[in-house]
Specification:
The protein has about 550 residues and is of the alpha+beta class. It has 16 helices and 26 strands. The strands form five sheets. Strands 1, 2, 8, 9, 10, 11, 17 and 18 form an eight-stranded mixed sheet that branches. Helix 2 packs parallel to helix 5, helix 2 runs parallel beside helix 9 and helix 3 packs parallel to helix 9. The protein is globular and about 70 Å long. About 50% of the residues are buried. The N terminus and C terminus are likely disordered.
Length: about 550
Amino acid sequence: MTDRADVVAACPEPQGVTAPRPDVDCLVVGGGPVGLLTAILLGRSGLQVSVVERWPQRYPLPRACTIDHEALRILQSAGLMADHAGLFEPSQGERGGYEFRNGAGDLLQAIDWNRASESGWANTNGFYQPDLEAVLEDVAITTPGVTVHRSWTFQSLTQDAQGVFALLAPTEQPAASPVGVRSRWLVGADGANSPVRSQLGLGVGDSGFQADWLVVDYEPLAEENWSAFVTQYCDPAQPATVVNSGPGRRRFEFMRRADVTPEELALESTAWRLMKPWGVTPETARLERHAVYTFRGRWAHTWNKGNVFLAGDAAHLMPPFLGQGLCSGLRDALALAWRLDLVHRGLASPSVCASYGPERTGHVREIIDEAVSAGRVICELDVDRAAVRDAELRRRSRDADALTREPPHPRLGEPSLTVASAGVQGRLAPQGRVRVADREGLFDDVVGGGWQLISRTGDPAGLLSEEDAAWFARIGGVTADLSGDGPVQDLDDAYAHWFAKHACTAVLARPDFYVFVAGEHGDVPGFLAQLRQALRTGFVRAGFVPE
């Protein structure tokens, strides 16, 4: 099994360890993708941010390997996709993006995840995490106001009326005198064993699902022909997963059976033996890494205490069967960043942060439940129960709806910072291709991100008072008339289809792309009044009283 300490020990030592600044707006503990993205988003909003990471170098081997359309839109909002879209390989496959097969390789069910997504990007994409982390770190250190400090370990924190005071120590010199950093906020994006979460004393819920799996990443040396982006081999003799893990790479995952020890499963010879039935051998592939992981479903009961917040694996863990772990962490980053931005600029009450944890908990719990359910299907080892499962999957495959079943798109958890809107509130809002004058592209790039006020039947800006329009612009709002008579043209009818599906003509979407409120064109002035109340008080729906 590959151990992180061994891998990092092989990397060159940093030439020097620069101490974090003593006073910042936000201290981010953890320099992985979620921590770095949080820092980038806050830095782009004008905050002074320090990221501290205990490891001296980036982890050089892959971990997460799939990412969805919503996560790519989040990276787009951070300015990454214009130059780095090539990091991601879209799902492709004649039978659909996701397959279940039995031990003999017979198709049990195929699910088409290749349909057009709400976010303007491919539904499912493979990627190589070290490449993404390198880009995120490069962007972070070049973002004004953001500094990244490696080889610093979080020790403790205290809170007072001014914010948070954290003590940090050089990782290589744990006995050295700690360095104090004062910040208004602290974000713990410090992994599954989060010291920040432990320091806060926050409890963790558990799904009860637990299974050891061998994860093997390799580079094919010969052309391979796979029928799907992800294939689950539901074989009671040896459950296995095969997934496209980014350009020029592939991943196998094998469940540990009771007659195999974790040590045996971790052997390189075991990896080659288990991949051999698919023709993957030392002659046809270069092994990049193999490691045994315990797949679990867990979540923090509370995501913040005072001005300290959790994000990413510090807040939730899930089995990887839906490829949603990193995606969920990136959602956390954006959901928290837009709130802190508005509070920092005096445009929202600190109470808007009270809905961060409930919204994200409800959302991620649904994904965890779906991932655990998929895991229980895949991990079945009893031959008789597996036969019943196979028959049920075959039955589903004859259902046309099963072939077009979507990846999970949960509504935000409650209580949420949304307004009841015939069920569409808290759902993901769309992004389509548009044209303005001679410029074509995705809406967020052409018209703008942030708060989006869009109407299908007229110009929403024309319904706003001068004062409302100025206030909306200050919070980062943009408006668009997609009636066909305005300057913004809906090139692929993505918005027309969305409005028709949800039986509305106007929508106000939040900076994290979730619907704040939807209704009719004439309701637009009321949308702004409800948003003002929400940002002033932190809630708009009956029964939500922030602590």
